[in-house]
Every structure is written in C-alpha cells, then in structure tokens.
Amino acid sequence: MLAHNPYRTCVDFDELLKIHRTAEEAMFHVAPWLNTTKIRYHQRSVPTPISRTPNFLRAIDMGEYVAEYEEDRLENYFVETAEYLQALQGNQTLFVGRKGTGKTANLIRIETELHKDRRNSRIETRLVDLNDWLF
Predict the structure, then answer these.
(1) Domain boundaries along the sequence of the chain
(2) Which candidate, 33, 65, 120, 134, has a CA 20 to 30 Å from the CA of 17?
(3) How far is CA 86 from the centre of its chain?
(4) pTM value?
C-alpha cells in the first residue's frame, strides 16, 4: 500500500504501508513490484483457462460475508476457536484483526452464549475502531 505523507493507517496495516513525500519516493517503493510484475507478464506463455466450479461447491452455504446479516444462522456454522473460548470464560476481552476475520461473529456468539445464563443480567459487546484510541 502506498500513501502520501502525512497518512496513518490502522495497526494491522502499518507494516504494509509505504509512505512517500514526493513522486520519486513513491517510485522507489513501487519500482521493485513493477519490475517483478513486468517479468511475470512477459514470461507467461498461454493464458490460464478459467476453471468451472463443480456444482456441489455451489450448493454449500458459507453464510453471508457480514456476520450482522445473519445473527440467527451464525450458530449453524460458527467455529469455536481458542480465542472465542477464552473470551467466553472472561480471559480475553479484545479482538483485533482485519475485515472478515470473524471479530463480529465472535462478539455475536459470545453475547448469545452469555445471554443463556440467567445470572448474566446485562451483557454489552461492541465494535470500536482502534484508530480512535491510537491516533
């Protein structure tokens, strides 16, 4: 990723971001990638054919791409990870990760499980943007 100075990114993209002040600095960061891409482009001989997905794969329901859209169906395919179990036991309270890594799905499942126990009178789970805290 390339950005003009000043620019800050969220924590999980920090190591991928290359910040530049001038066009020359930008080219310094981009040139190695461009050269590799040109070489790969010229080395390919025959275009790779597009493969057809077998019909049985199309029938598999992987759920929505956003957990909020299917809170009621999440339990059908949710995978309990070690992090999820730690959070459920109260040993972990912060999930950090890129989009699509399951942060919201974990929060939804934890909230659902904790609501099953009548001793838990109030459960609050929420998503926060770390950029609000760090910068």
Answers:
(1) 2-43, 61-134
(2) 65
(3) 20
(4) 0.47
